Amino acid sequence: MVTEPLAEPGAAVVGRTSMTERKQGMLFAQRVFHIAGIYGLAVLLPQFFIELLPADVVRRQLGEEIVPGAVHPEHFYGFIGVAAAWQVAFLIIARDPARYRLIMLPGILEKLSFGIAGMALYAAGRLTATTAAFCVIDLIWAALFWVAFVKVRSEPSQLLD
Which of 65, 87, 68 is nearest to 77 (CA)? Predict the structure, then answer.
């Protein structure tokens, strides 16, 4: 019978996870949430100024007849504001993934809510391919967030020692 070692030689083992694996999981989560937060702010914040674009630019670039936010500005700018706040939360999670591990779950829901709704709208012919591409990106982020959640295990309870 062949058995695999639980940890690398010389690595301290906590529970069933080696310290090396824990560090790699933390580093993965830090990178994922840091990049997601920066990417999200870079994509979202310029949308606060979208109404300043000429209508012909909006038609060419976005495939939209009406500038987003013009019909129901409270929904559009409210969405952008809440989504931008989540990007800041992702940057906070990146600072200490173990401490903020449970906040990863609503972060996953944030990504799924836009991704799934957008893909359903695209399937119904109510969303442009450009916007659908951003929905797919959010679904990829949701998957990466889930992997980070699984990799970052909460600290073992001190009460059980």
Answer: 68
Q: Is 125 left (phi over 0), alpha (psi -120 to 50) or beta?
A: left
Nearest to 87 by CA among 110, 66, 71, 70: 110
Distance CA 161, CA 150 (A): 24
Give the pLDDT band of residue 161 (cuts 50, 70, 90).
very low
Kindly provide the b/e burial profile for residues 94-109, where b requires at least 16 CB atoms within 10 angstroms of the residue's own CB.
Answer: beebeebbebbeebbe
Which alpha helices (H) appear in 124-156, and where do they start and end? Answer: 129-151
Side-chain half-sphere exposure of 75, counting CA atoms within 13 A: 5
Q: 54: alpha, beta or left, given left = phi > 0 and alpha = psi -120 to 50?
A: beta
Rg over CA atoms, the chain: 20
Tens digits of per-residue pLDDT, 46-79? 999 888 878 787 777 666 666 676 678 898 899 9
Residue 104 phi, psi (nearest 5):
-65, -30
pTM greater than 0.70: yes
